[in-house]
Amino acid sequence: MRSRALLTSVAAKVGEERTSYVLEGSIAVTGAAVQWLRDQLGLIHTAAEVEELARSVQDNGGVYFVPAFSGLFAPHWRDDARGVIVGLTAYAHAGHLARATLEAAAWQTREVLDAANAVAGVALGELRVDGGMTANELLMQFQADVLGVPVIRPTVTETTALGAAFAAGLAVGFWPDQAELRARWTPERRWEPRMDERLREREYARWKKAVARSLDWVD
What we know:
By secondary structure, the protein is α+β, with helices and mostly antiparallel strands. 42% of the residues lie in helices and 13% in strands.
């Protein structure tokens, strides 16, 4: 299994078991784009306000935001890219930009998962999410819509910290086995896709056009 779009990283090695690996796709800017709306543009006062602002409109109004502030990471790996906002008309306002910012996180995730599906040989059946942006329920629904699979938020959303605690407990015998750890993972909410497939693919094509506009800005 080889991929130029993704990285092959070590996932874990427990005791004498074989080492597990993962396909990793790093995205440069997701939550930082929301911070940019707050700190640089002053459109919101707190990061949580972006959801309310994005909900003030029915859709993105034809606006797409590629937050390639320092290039694009997976699956493009282009350090010559820079951020672009395209599709602006006199109709567009702050709500459309807020919505385009959230949608950018979902579309970038779609690109990574498409790259993973292309080499893994096993189609994605569901996406389990974690981190601060999972509190944004508009984003979670849109993420399910653009992937066409359910998105599941766990009860504990800081998965990295939880995994470290589980590994440490397993190493000292606090947890009896990995089956016990799997049983302790519990879902808190699930979003089912509800976007029409034709609309999804049309919007994805427009996102790709926006990405193309972000390239070749740095010589």
